């Protein structure tokens, strides 16, 4: 028997000791995810079954120029590493191998707008995005890299310079907690804030960084395509689309109240025309985001609000069958 859906909304929000981490995530919950952030990597080297394996050409440069060894050429080696003096002297092709030492900068671009304040089963999309950002931040720190973030709501963008420390991660998690707590049905949606956030990130990220976008793509348009293109020219970009199954599957309820944050109407969930329009309104911006990522050869990871984010991430990255 299919489990009934649990609809979360503004009336579900709780504060203080009664806070529900499914509606507004707490700092304690995000900190606890440090001990779960194991068994996956968001960097280019991936298992063959990972969604990131072979899907795009990495823009990330090597991590250093310290010489490690001289060895025979193997098929697939970069010809730029050929040691021509040794090759000429021995008559056999040799390459120089270097170690990677420089830490990498990773930026988490996390959407916390009102469009993320929706969830029909386990948790709100805003909560899932915060959980994913926390898992990624702890994993990046665990791999010895610097982690920064740009967390945006419908009005503001909050930037965190990449640092390699627990304090840096905690600062990011505190902002996520604050952003979660501020979401309510009275917030006004701002589709244009997505491009404002992209532009703000572009002014801070120059090259050789890994950018991980976590959100629902609300407001994605041709301007977003251009900003993504510019961002991906000299950086690696991974997109994580957070979605709820009910966004494209209108529930068959006798009465359903729909609100845009200012006004609300009561509609019937059984009307076929309404179902079609409801589905198209959700799919339009997601479709444009997916097409842009595919056009630029960038990977997309789909995460829903039903299952645990970590398990979905492990499956997508080939760490679990």
TrEMBL record:
InterPro entries: DUF58, vWFA_dom_sf. Residues 69-285 form the DUF58 domain. It comes from the Bacteria. This is DUF58 domain-containing protein. SUPFAM superfamilies: vWA-like.
């Amino acid at each position: 028997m299919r489990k009934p859906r649990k609809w979360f909304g503004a009336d579900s929000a709780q504060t203080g000791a009664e806070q529900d981490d499914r509606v507004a995530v707490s700092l304690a919950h995000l900190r606890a995810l440090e001990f779960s952030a194991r068994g996956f990597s968001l960097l280019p080297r991936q298992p063959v079954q990972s969604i990131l394996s072979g899907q795009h050409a990495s823009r990330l440069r090597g991590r250093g120029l310290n010489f490690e060894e001289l060895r025979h050429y193997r098929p697939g080696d970069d010809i730029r590493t050929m040691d021509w003096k040794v090759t000429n002297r021995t008559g056999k092709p040799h390459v120089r191998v270097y170690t990677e030492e420089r830490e990498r900068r990773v930026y988490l671009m996390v959407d916390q707008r009102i469009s993320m304040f929706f969830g029909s089963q386990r948790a709100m999309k805003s909560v899932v995005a915060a959980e994913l950002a926390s898992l990624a931040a702890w994993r990046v720190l665990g791999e010895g890299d610097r982690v920064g973030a740009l967390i945006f709501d419908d009005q503001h963008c909050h930037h965190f310079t990449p640092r390699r420390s627990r304090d840096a991660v905690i600062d990011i998690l505190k902002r996520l907690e604050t952003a979660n707590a501020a979401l309510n049905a009275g917030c006004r949606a701002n589709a244009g804030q997505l491009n404002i956030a992209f532009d703000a990130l572009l002014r801070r990220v120059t090259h050789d960084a890994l950018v991980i976008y976590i959100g629902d793509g609300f407001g994605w348009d041709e301007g977003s395509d251009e900003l993504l293109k510019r961002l991906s020219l000299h950086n690696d970009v991974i997109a994580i689309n957070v979605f709820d199954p009910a966004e494209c599957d209108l529930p068959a309820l006798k009465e359903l109240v729909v609100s845009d944050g200012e006004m609300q109407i009561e509609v019937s969930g059984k009307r076929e025309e309404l179902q079609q329009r409801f589905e198209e309104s959700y799919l339009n911006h997601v479709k444009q985001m997916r097409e842009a990522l595919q056009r630029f050869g960038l990977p997309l990871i789909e995460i829903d609000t039903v299952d645990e984010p970590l398990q979905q991430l492990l499956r997508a990255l080939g760490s679990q069958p």
